[in-house]
Write a structure and sequence with these properties.
Distance between the termini: 17 Å
CATH class of the largest domain: Alpha Beta
Strand order of the largest sheet: 3-2-1-6-7-17
CATH topology of the largest domain: Nucleotidyltransferase, domain 5
Radius of gyration: 23 Å
Shape: globular
CATH superfamily of the largest domain: ATPase, nucleotide binding domain
Helix content: 25-40%
Amino acid sequence: MPLYEGLSSLSLINEKNTTVVFDFGAAYTKAGFAGENGPRVIAKSEVKCRESGRLVPVFQYRDDDELRHHLVDFIHKLYFRHLLVNPKDRRVVVVESLLCPTKLRSTLAKVLFRHYEVLCVVFVPSHLVSLMTLGVTTGLVVDLGYQEATIVPVYEGVPVLKAWQALPLGGRAIHRSLCELLLDRALTVGEDGKEQRLSTVMEDLSDNVLEDIKVRTCFVTTLDRSGRLQSNKYDRSVEPPPPAPSVRYPMSGSRILTIPGTVREMATEVLFERDEDLLSVPSMILDALLKCPIDTRHALADNMVLIGGTASLKGMKHRILSEVRALVMSPPFSDVLQIKSFKVHHPPAKDNYVAWLGGAILGGTEAVVLRSLPRDQYLTNDIVPDWCNLAFNTKEEHDEKSV
């Protein structure tokens, strides 16, 4: 069953067929075995479409049947190309977001149980198991993924569900911002040696190219430099800071792209610019703290955990800390939040697979046996227990468990 009642009193187990751990993401999927310190594979979440033959994102679908076909093909590749194990002999741990759509969870369970006939499956919340990598039970977990930024406070092993925050501020938003900046400011040199604006040569850049440029060249600038850049953007009398060095990026053929330093440091500013509702990633963190009980806020602020691929950008953690510390001293937060200290943990793993590592730790304990959903039970009821379904959160059920 889902682990929403806490993680106390879990001991290690020793089984012949090691549990398989999946962490399905919008951009990348992590897969490996419980008890290991890293995933065996980090694969792009894309699969060959049965109709067109082109590679398409796994979670881009028109109906349930298309999603099921995508998952069948994708999980087949994970099992038989990367993990090289028989799915029928293995238990499965699926690391998921608390906000995962019910349709996706149900379809995934159907594929695992009916198509691959796994022994049992346990769905674990990514924000909760991320804290297992640190050995703590309290933390404000900020997941900066590809599609969105999701924040869930966890206090004494229990997610504070009423305080969750989510905005479409992640890797995709950075890609859009980077594409606009490149088309507006970048220069390109072709085979003839003539220098042109990138917008005169092409109208768009692919996600693969944008991601490569982001990872290789972009960084998150400091709060002071960002303020001066924004001031110069609206008031030319304000002198901007010295620009970062430009870099030359080879594109297809012999074409060379020159990426200005301002583009390299401004691409990630979309995460910190407030929208029409005055929301950004730093303001989401403070809003989440405001919705938590007052006696938990200091402990949560002192135990922030940043996970996700976007969190691994250079300077991201330092910038978020600086923004939060500055924002909490200004209205309206200064009137209601009396928090002076914010601290960030450094998990023993790369930011993009911290949640997977938490699932691998959990998969090595007896929880994978005691709290999992067996195949025979699923085939009988044809439903996956869900925290948001009141049918699985009734007083009678808890009374039966305690007997």
